[in-house]
Amino acid sequence: MNHTMIIFGASGDLTSRKLIPALYELHRKQRLPAGTRIVGSSRTPFSHEAWRDRLADSTAEHLGQRFDRSVWDDFASSIYYHAGDVTQPDDVVSLGRFLDQLESQAPTTRVYYLSTAPRFYEPVIVNLGQAGMTCEDCAERRVVIEKPFGTDLASAHQLNDIVHRVFAESQIYRIDHYLGKETVSNLLVLRFANTIFEPIWNRNYVDHVQITAAEEVTIGHRAGFYETAGVLRDMFQNHLMQLFTLTAMECPARFHADAVRDEKVKVLRCVRPLEQDQIDRWTLRGQYRGYRDEPGVRPESRTATFGAITMHVDNWRWQGVPFYLRSGKAMSCRTTQIVIQFRPPPHMIFGNGTSDHHQANRLVLQIQPAEGIQLHFQSKVPDAGMQQQLVELDFNFRGRFARELPDAYQRLLLDAMLGDASLFARSDEVEASWRLIDPIQTVWDTSDDPPLATYEPGNWGPVDATSWMQRQGRQWFDTCPVLT
Ligand code: BG6
After folding, report:
1. Ligand 1 centroid vs 166 CA: distance in angstroms?
2. Whose CA is nearest to atom 13 of ligand 1?
3. Which atom of ligand 1 is nearest to the CA of 178?
4. 182 lines ligand 1 (CB under 6 A)
């Protein structure tokens, strides 16, 4: 079986920055299935040659020394371009004819990749269906849908309805690039391929969990998107929720797309939804100073660029263990980390007999950068009586494995071509996540609760974040990547 990946929105930034470099790398490593072709489509007219040249330049720029001209030339011979407007049924029919010709030699699996602006998702899907370019519940026609998948529960539900009219759920691959990160997949391995973590991964031993995605960058030139999204839609509904579900879910029966996703949905359903009058207490929001001066941002904008949420999980494993999720732009440093903060020992035989949980064991899963894991535990300070100190045990991917950590898109594109949906979001998962975010977004949009705090760029969000956490009897782990 041959494979064709058809990229809609081919002249866009994502194609040149992420998709083509990832496909090139897969080709270089000889991972692409034999007989793979890539067909770009967007409104701008290009010949096959002109498009290949343009992609050669952008890929070379993106990959630097990893770009090899002879490997590229070999890869580029399987790249094609067909211009068309996805909102015009005739253009989609014409693309279909082109694909039929290209694929006439052998049966071919098609992966339609929607890398267009979200408003075009519906016309592409409808027109593919009408042009007879899909098939019901078959493995040979798949669709990959980029984020954002809806802007709230209602729009996500509506989009699911539209896609389901043309594709069965098993043919739909909703992208969240965090799921393609090696350290994110490693969460499953850490938890379920070892015996030592799982027995303590619960309310008996864990005090709380912190999931942080901090970015040093500001929104730059993305105001058009960011002004309507804000931090909740941009980072929480998708990436942070994915990190949360992988940390909190039960062990699936096996590593199979539906078994994994069943468990993720189950834990999302255990999260206590926040009532309107609780949002002031359990959430926090901020905007970095200077945001309103960014090009394209309204001078009176109330868009949050920082958010923090306390989530309570009502099940046997996690009852009473808060999960703190936070993310922000213009923060101290770039770090995505999951901190499992354990309880202090029940009885301290050293010192005054007490210990506080800031000094208790901690497992830091450093998702990026400097991917790895660090365990914090008490050690005796030499030659100082029984004095103790928190020390670290490090595992660093780069130190341990010679292989380069691939970009998330390599794994996701390959899985979509091979038909493995384990690392893609299912319809009920996306909707369950929106169901939790929607009430918060609504209160943030319509009230002053909690107040929108201004924070200085280069900090850990608003100063109130510290007292907010203290009121909950905890302290943020404000540490830039623990590993280097
Ligand atoms: C994207 C968001 O989905 O993820 C961006 O739209 C954000 O605002 C980016 O910067 C973060 O991704 P990563 O892989 O750099 O953590």
Report:
1. 30
2. 178
3. 14
4. no
Active-site residues: which are they? 239
The CATH number of residue 311's host domain is: 3.30.360.10
CA 326/CA 465 separation, integer angstroms: 10
Let me know: does 394 contact 374? Beta carbons within 8 Å.
Answer: yes
In the Cβ-directed half-sphere of 382, how many Cα atoms lie within 13 Å? 0
In ligand 1, which atom is closest to the CA atom of 229?
A: 6
**Domain region containing 11:** 2-146
Q: DSSP for 454-472?
A: EE-TTBSS-THHHHHHHHT
Q: pTM of this prediction?
A: 0.95
Q: How far apart are CA 195 and CA 199, in angstroms?
A: 7
215 lines ligand 1 (CB under 6 A): yes
User: Total domain count for the chain?
Assistant: 2
CA 278 to centroid of ligand 1, rounded, Å: 28
Q: Indicate if 253 and 117 belong to the same structural domain.
A: no
Rounded to the nearest whole angstrom, what is the distance from the C-alpha of residue 47 to the centroid of ligand 1?
Answer: 32
CA distances from 10 to 15, 17, 85, 240, 438 (A): 6, 11, 11, 28, 32
Q: Is residue 411 part of a domain?
A: no
Whether 407 is in the pocket of ligand 1, judged by its Cβ within 6 Å, is: no
For each of the chain's 484 residues, which pLDDT tens digit applies? Answer: 999 999 999 999 999 999 999 999 999 999 999 899 999 999 999 999 999 999 999 999 999 999 999 999 999 999 999 999 999 999 999 999 999 999 999 999 999 999 999 999 999 999 999 999 999 878 899 999 999 999 999 999 999 999 999 999 999 999 999 999 999 999 999 999 999 999 999 999 999 999 999 999 999 999 999 999 999 999 999 999 999 999 999 999 999 999 999 999 999 999 999 999 999 999 999 999 999 999 999 999 999 999 999 999 999 999 999 999 999 999 999 999 999 999 999 888 887 666 666 689 999 999 999 899 999 999 999 999 888 899 999 999 988 998 788 999 999 999 999 999 999 999 999 999 999 999 999 999 999 999 999 999 999 999 999 999 999 999 999 999 989 8
Residue with tokens 């200077």: 290
